[in-house]
Amino acid sequence: xxxxxxxxxxxxxxxxxxxxxxxxxxxxxxxxxxxxxxxxxxxxxxxxxxxxxxxxxxxxxxxxxxxxxxxxxxxxxxxxxxxxxxxxxxxxxxxxxxxxxxxxxxxxxxxxxxxxxxxxxxxxxxxxxxxxxxxxxxxxxxxxxxxxxxxxxxxxxxxxxxxxxxxxxxxxxxxxxxxxxxxxxxxxxxxxxxxxxxxxxxxxxxxxxxxxxxxxxxxxxxxxxxxxxxxxxxxxxxxxxxxxxxxxxxxxxxxxxxxxxxxxxxxxxxxxxxxxxxx
Amino acid sequence: xxxxxxxxxxxxxxxxxxxxxxxxxxxxxxxxxxxxxxxxxxxxxxxxxxxxxxxxxxxxxxxxxxxxxxxxxxxxxxxxxxxxxxxxxxxxxxxxxxxxxxxxxxxxxxxxxxxxxxxxxxxxxxxxxxxxxxxxxxxxxxxxxxxxxxxxxxxxxxxxxxxxxxxxxxxxxxxxxxxxxxxxxxxxxxxxxxxxxxxxxxxxxxxxxxxxxxxxxxxxxxxxxxxxxxxxxxxxxxxxxxxxxxxxxxxxxxxx
Lengths: 279, 256
Fold this sequence. Notes:
Number of strands of chain B: 0
Structural class of chain B: mainly alpha
CATH class of one domain in chain A: Alpha Beta
Shape of chain A: globular
Order of helices and strands of chain B: HHHHHHHHHHH
Largest sheet of chain A: 6 strands, mixed
CATH topology of one domain in chain A: Rossmann fold
Number of helices of chain B: 11
Structural class of chain A: alpha/beta
Strand content of chain B: under 5%
Distance between the termini of chain B: 25 Å
Helix content of chain A: 25-40%
Shape of chain B: flat
Number of domains of chain B: 2
Oligomer: heterodimer
Number of helices of chain A: 9
CATH superfamily of one domain in chain A: P-loop containing nucleotide triphosphate hydrolases
CATH class of the largest domain in chain B: Mainly Alpha
CATH superfamily of the largest domain in chain B: MetI-like
Number of strands of chain A: 9
Order of helices and strands of chain A: HEEEHEEHHHEHEHEEHH
């Protein structure tokens, strides 16, 4: 762990870039991680090594059941400690549920139906002890950024799927955590709404450059959003490819749809994924 | 559309009034013409006269009404507060529930009105005995709905709370409690109806005052119209309670 940490901070992993020491709080290192459940009966993830730089947007794609979400749950500290071997470092510490440095966004919006949109957007900050006036103004600002300023006092039942997920984005970004873990946040949305929300997420992310680990089964989503795409094999999940996405920033999700380089990258990721499924 | 529905509603109400009036008219006629013995079926006109006199002239029914309502409210408040507290305790401490569950199930399975004679010995003919019976009914209904509600928390909310680092108290106050409210409310609504049942039942057995006690006296002296009058009054009380709880529920649970 100590070796990992010093290597991590010293900058050898940063391809020569100067990175401030403090930024280590926003990085993630997974070193030869294996995860199994039921005392070895189910081998979910094998020999998984990955370093995520502070401020980097990394997506993990793979066939369903490949252990993508398991990796995320490991990072979030939601797995029983004994299920994983290898070394894990997130925000310069071991994974722990409730780590203030980490915000987790679920596939389903998990809004509280008895709270208004504004109050839902405040919920994360409320639990983490942000004073009422501050969290209210932050939540209102975020609702404005996700395009829901006129729905502050609406209850979730009155919101569409897309709008609910926007509120969940506001709740997640309201937290001051440097690391965001997102588990297929747009998986249940229709194609049109998905594009809109990808733009919203990119907009939020580009302002603050937090570290994001983004799980998805949608290759185009992974490519348009990320700095790097990790392709995983079927269970037990291994890394098949680690593909840098050298598309410029800031990006427009819509404009990329007609960019030839985007389509090259798509073909590349797809080939890797298919190789993994054929094995 | 709206005018269609409102004219439909008006039509329904008009027909309901016609149905009611013809029913009462036929009843009156059957009693007047002695097709059925009026001693057994009473007479709508006599029921009306009884209510008029007891409510507006001699005002004799009010004291019984107050006693029954006081008994109902007291047993409802005590029973539901105890039920909610006990239910929350069970949700947060499953061990306590596991230990007490068989005893409570046995108590709940017993016809509670059978306890009334015992409570009459213990608490006398005043408010105490009817409150005890009403409490014993309300408590279990509210208890079981609170336990069901407390268990019904969305697992996604628990995962979210965990990743946010919520304390036990925060999880309880911000997720478990509010998500239990709709189910608990159903229990409260039933609890109020059963509180009324317990109180009236005990009064019928023995009591100083109360609508149930009045009912027994009237029936024992074959004043059938008076008996019907009390029954109608009790039905109206029940309907009012349900309506009031419905309004409260719509307000409290407007997020649903």
